[in-house]
Amino acid sequence: MKGVCSGLHPRIQDYMWGPDRLNDPARQRALTAAAQVLCDMCPIRSACLAEAIGADDQYGVFGGLTVKGRRVLARFAQAEGVVPDGGELSRSRFVAWLDMHPEAIDQARIVQAEHRRGERGDRRSRALEALGGRARTVAFLSALSGAGKTVSVVCTAWALSSGGAPVRVVDMAPDGHLCAWATQAARSGRTLPFDVVDAVAFEESGAGHDGGWTLLDAPHGACRGTRRALECASLAILVSRTDEESLKATWQMSHHLAVASSVLIADAADRREGERAQAWLDEHRLAHTVAAIGHDDGLAALPEPGERPPAG
């Protein structure tokens, strides 16, 4: 009797049942899921699992289980006195036990999924603890001037604060345009729902912000203020226009960042321009968001705080 996979091309088998050979997590997950579906229909699944567990294979999907899932299944069997040690007799006993308890495969898959979620939660907690005050500190950058960076910072701060989170915006540009804008808003009687401070005040108060968000409006291009913003942040948002010159400059800048980053196209009021920019970013494999919020539209949605902030 042959397995379901026997009719597939050997190269397809190699990738589908050995997805860990691919350096692409998304494709690994897709191939693993496909292999599990085929294995669930396979008439020799029990024998395949017995062979893989007995040989202690450390990679690939066999019988619908990854190596960690197979370890869970082996523990289930051992608890009932069945030890799959690779010998012919033990392999036969394991196949007989598994044929009597086919639900054990799904149970092993569930246990492994729960364990994986727990590991992810632990890693996330450790990562947040290691980041400390940087965990909610986001640096907004732009390779060229006039990309809409500062407007994007203001819109993001407004959206976050509307959800009840404390937000602090840091004006790291030497000219202090954003701080001047916030001061003018206060003088005109407008109360912003977020704090705006300069770089000096930010350095004196430290990176933490009482569990809230800190948005760093860095100067455009590569300069000392930009480098300092990246040192303080756990995420960088690269704001770009839709024209190819801006996209290329943003792509080049992304290669020099040591933190996670994503591109924001903030001037995509024209749908076709936004789609073209998105296609360019997809082709160059840059994580991105294309926002249909132009400068005028974005600020028109906000209460007018005196003069509008600079385009950044």
UniProtKB/TrEMBL annotation:
PROSITE patterns, per the entry: 4FE4S_WBL
Record Pfam families: Whib
Domain (4Fe-4S Wbl-type) ranges: 4-72
Domain of life where this protein originates: Bacteria
Name of this protein: Transcription regulator WhiB superfamily protein
Natural source organism: Bifidobacterium italicum
